[in-house]
Structure prediction request, 256 residues.
Amino acid sequence: MSDPLISLPEASAAFAMGVLGSTHCVGMCGGIASALAPAQRGAGRDGLLLLPLWMAAGRISTYAGLGAVVGTAGGLISTGLGGVLVPVLRGLLGLLLVAVGLSIAGWWPRSMAWFEALGGIVWKRLAPIGPRLMPVDSIARGLGVGALWGFLPCGLVYAALAAASVSGASIRGAIWMALFGLGTVPAVAGAGWLAGGVRVWVSGIGARRGAGVLLLASGIWTAAMPVWSHFNHGAHGSSIDEPHRDHGSAPDHTNH
Prediction:
């Protein structure tokens, strides 16, 4: 049985995806955090500082829960089909990361629009819960708003969920999404605390293109790895088979 925890490279990739993707989500999510600030006045000075973190905790909890679901589903599909689809899923994940990278960099802004539209169907059913949690003047309400926030349609989140689905286990998927969520916290929470200045800098064209290029490169690498592994394995297999053929023919020479 394989270790259910993800490896250090996988953990680093999940966290980095959240950090880099912050240039995409800070414009919208940072705006939400800033908009919620007036609703936190009843929590006092400490609440204004701490409630953004409680909201982040609620959002990460939603991400982790969704990660567990897709990780379980991916594991069941992979096990049921003997792992045949794993390279295909990794290839699709790579293409999805490419699309996200192009979107963040501004070279294909609408690349994730159709994916986000699907998430909008679920969001329409959940959005009416938001006003019931206002004002955000307690830890419980902060966690509730954050948990609801986690369902907000976002192409970057869906790309992270696609990566979590390849993990093949509920715990792996949950950890992947939790680390991804942690990567988004500094920019999103910082934008909420410091308002416009942080949002303008992080969502600037230079930062967005830099992050987009890195995600684009990651997507190309991820999509290419199954192909590379296939050809590399084939070449390795042929080098092993050749000595066996020579060894098998040796007794024939000794019999003459």
Notes: Residues 205-255 form the longest helix (51 residues). The radius of gyration is 23 Å. DSSP finds nine helices and no strands in the chain. The CA atoms of residues 52 and 189 lie 6 Å apart.
